[in-house]
Amino acid sequence: MWQSRPTLNAARSPGGTSRRRMFTAGAATAATLAAMATVAIGGSAQAALAPGTPLKTLAAANGNRYFGSDMTGDLVSNSNVTQLQAQQFNMLTPGNEMKWQTIEPNQNQFNFGPGDQIVQYAHANGERYRGHNLVWDSQLAGWVTQIPLNQVQAAMENHITKEVSHYATVTATMPQTPYAWDVVNEPFQESGSLKQDVFFNAMGSGYIADALRTAHAADPNAKLYLNDFNIEGMNAKSNAMFSLAQSLLAAGAPLNGIGFESHFIEGQNPSGIQANMQRFANLGLDVAVTELDDRFTSLPPSNAGLQQQATDFANTVKACLGITRCVGVTQWAIGDPDSWVPGAFSGQGAATMFDQSYAPKPAFTAVQTALGATAGNTVTVTNPGARTGTVGTATSLQISATDSAAGQTLTFSATGLPAGLTISSSGLISGTPTTNQTANVTVTARDGTNASGSASFTWTISGGSTGGTCHVTYTRNSEWPGNFTAQVVIQNTGTSAINGWSLTFTFPGDQKVTANFNGGFSMSGENATLTNASYNGTIAPGSSITDGFQGTFSSNDASPTSFAVNGTACS
Question: Domain range for residue 444?
Fold first, then answer.
């Protein structure tokens, strides 16, 4: 599914449009999105890492299952979101970037850039991904419904072959293949009849087997799924899906799994989920919870409602754990700010395990418990209280924490530190502040059992000169033989806006920039220049942007240490 929904059973209403941006043919190109892009979103909430053992770790300990999330290109750009995503999830499903409207907006003109971006993000973070999706009556390029019906089968087979082959081919810039494909998405009406869409009208019910065989021919290694909503409990629609699965298997079609989307309403989850999923597993099929959320029909949710949501989430996860062939669970968002629900159902939402600030709700703890987490030991971080500092003056602060388990070594991390300050793994914050600001800092201490604790406080920086221009932070993201990706954060430390920027620096080794994900670039010897795109050229005072790029090297991959914006040196 995307963020425009069909009717979701009797208690649900037709979907609308989402707050999330959808990629279109002109939104990105393969050249600019061939690797992970990172653009900081000014003013977004700082995501705090959730406590305890991550969901992905717990799921892996339960029969090597995964715990996933969906991801769209705008979320790849938000470092405040991706830190939580990387901590908790280890399977990605692209929200929109692999759907027909994006991949083939015009006949035989393919736009793989947005999908490649998601794959590069998954690879950089050590995650697998599910391809979503190949054939669906929604988010379908308009030309498909306008061609003669006798041309639809060839168009469908060409689309599947080109897309699946692209992601099945491993290259230096596409180093990962999909775990699975949602080959046919939401084929049924609520009555259990197949939708009479362009594919059905052209080929009858046989289009589904044809789509599966075409996908298998393009990638014999990928698991091939049918995916639908309101098939979680026993009803006419799930019975129709079961009958379809039986007939496809009897005909030798390469069907490997069924995806149960699981878009629920708080307190209204269907009964018999495990028994229903088990009958599909008994056919020799894998099953997966592919798009889990549990929304409130009125906001804000009450404490009792949050507890009910926790029960709903936990029961769904327990149903999966009760089936040997249930391979994993995917939440359809990272947190509430990313959910499709408010854009589709006015006044409804709060459908995920993480609230508007990405703090965990009771549902998160309930899922941890369902996955087998134990109370274990407790990490407590001492809150240092409000701190003050001065621009250009060295400062330091040792963060203290205690662990109820003996012999554990604590490792510290921090989010929201003022520019110029860093934290060591032992909890020492040090450096020289570079700009006037008040920062909300969260420090987290984690031990070897993955127990953790956090404390948040403010740090106000004042004084010093306000005549500076910029501060640049350079970070290497990933590396594979002869190639790497890196990001640069450009902060405007001056008092007036930067309107159009050119970042220059010199590599100390033999590196070359080969692609700038969010603008232009040029190389002169070892001297690199990155320039802004149309959408990120303005940096307000106190704000920052993050640009990512891909490069190559032969032997020396040392990082640059000095930078200039528009010819003026940065700190």
Answer: 379-462
Is position 193 within any domain? yes
Sheet strands side by side (includes 437-446): 387-390, 452-462, 437-446, 411-415
Nearest to residue 9, comparing CAs of 257, 192, 258?
192
The CATH number for 457's domain is: 2.60.40.10
Same domain for 542 and 401: no
Using one digit for the tens of pLDDT, what is the confidence trace for 122-167? 998 899 999 999 999 999 999 999 999 999 999 999 999 999 999 9
> For the stretch 191-228, what's the b/e string if a residue is b when 16 or more beta carbons lie within 10 angstroms of its beta carbon?
ebebbebbbbebbeeebbbbbbbbbbebbeebbbbbbb
Select which of 186, 232, 261, 266 is catalytic.
Answer: 186
Q: Residue 131: beta bridge partners?
A: 181
- Which of 321, 341, 370 is the endpoint of a domain? 370
In the three-class reduction of DSSP (H, G, I as helix; E, B as strand; rest coil), residue 323 is classed as coil
Assess whether 232 carries a catalytic annotation: no
Of 104, 157, 261, 291, the catalytic one is: 291
Place of tokens 């914050």: 429
Per-residue pLDDT band for 17 (boundaries 50, 70, 90) equals very low
pLDDT of residue 354: 96
Residues in the chain: 571
Element (H, E) at 445: strand 437-446
What pLDDT digit, counting tens, does each position of 241-287 carry? 999 999 999 999 999 999 999 999 999 999 899 999 999 999 999 99
Nearest-angstrom CA–CA distance, 139 and 141: 7
Query: How much is the average pLDDT of 48-76?
Result: 88
Decide if 104 is catalytic. Answer: no
Cα angle, residue 469 at apex, residues 463 and 471 outer, rounded to 5° = 85
